[in-house]
């Protein structure tokens, strides 16, 4: 059950050093390093290619067609935050545009992740303000219904608590629980080093069939080569 009409002003954010370390890795690497959990649904897409961000979550709970709480959330943003907005029911209206982006950035926000629509995409792209959204829609919203800020939310299928780490790029959006940020950064670094070695072998011509020792299991499964 969502809590409505609440703004939590003091939240425990993930360790900044761990966030900065996670910023070195892509969403896919972080997702795998965490044991293939924490990934938001793939319908969330960046509004422009090449966007990449890592930051701590300020969460917002919205009602369909109502962006009132986005303005409330702006006051709670601190340097390095990513605003994560969930909606109480499915909606694709344009909750966010260049004016709110200007306000969010002035408070230190690095990006927005929203399980709904946004608009003013050309302006947001020119600003270089990254947004991951479910839709792009010119349809505006009203300001009439209380939601909440900095409460646990489910955004695009993933649980997000205030202060968790958000890592997002062209491949998607991943949530790293604040308590797991440091160990996930360690695991991501180890995975990246391992992949670098594999990449070098593949570039040298080694086949994945041999590197991953697949031939025997493929034969056991019944694969036959015919000349």
What would your notes on this structure say?
With 227 residues, the chain is of the alpha/beta class. The protein has helices at 16-22, 27-33, 68-74, 98-107, 121-127, 181-203, 208-211, 215-220, and strands at 6-7, 45-46, 53-62, 81-87, 111-118, 131-136, 148-149, 153-155, 158-160, 165-169, 172-176. The strands form two sheets. Strands 1, 2, 3, 4, 5, 6, 7, 10 and 11 form a nine-stranded mixed beta sheet that branches. Strand 10 (165-169) and strand 11 form a beta hairpin. It is elongated. The protein starts with 5 loop residues before the first strand and ends in a 7-residue tail after the last helix. The mean pLDDT is 97.
Compact summary:
The chain has helices spanning 16-22, 27-33, 68-74, 98-107, 121-127, 181-203, 208-211, 215-220, and strands at 6-7, 45-46, 53-62, 81-87, 111-118, 131-136, 148-149, 153-155, 158-160, 165-169, 172-176. The protein has 227 residues and is an alpha/beta fold.
């Amino acid at each position: 059950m969502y809590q409505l009409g609440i703004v939590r002003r003091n939240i425990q954010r993930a360790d900044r050093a761990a966030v900065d370390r996670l910023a070195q890795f892509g969403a896919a690497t972080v997702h795998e390093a965490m044991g293939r959990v924490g990934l938001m649904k793939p319908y969330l897409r960046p509004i422009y290619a090449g966007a990449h961000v890592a930051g701590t979550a300020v969460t917002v709970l919205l009602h369909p067609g109502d962006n009132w709480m986005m303005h409330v959330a702006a006051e709670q943003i601190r340097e390095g935050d990513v605003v994560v907005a969930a909606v109480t029911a499915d909606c694709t209206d344009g909750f966010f545009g260049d004016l709110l982006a200007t306000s969010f950035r002035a408070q230190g926000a690095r990006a927005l992740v929203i399980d709904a629509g946004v608009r003013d995409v050309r302006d947001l792209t020119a600003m270089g303000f990254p947004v991951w959204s479910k839709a792009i829609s010119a349809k505006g919203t009203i300001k009439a219904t209380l939601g909440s800020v900095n409460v646990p939310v489910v955004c695009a299928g993933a649980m997000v608590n205030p202060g968790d780490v958000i890592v997002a790029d062209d491949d998607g959006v991943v949530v790293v629980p604040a308590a797991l940020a440091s160990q996930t950064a360690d695991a991501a670094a180890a995975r990246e080093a391992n992949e670098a070695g594999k990449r070098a072998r593949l570039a040298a011509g080694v086949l994945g069939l041999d590197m991953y020792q697949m031939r025997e299991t493929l034969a056991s499964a019944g694969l036959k080569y015919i000349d």
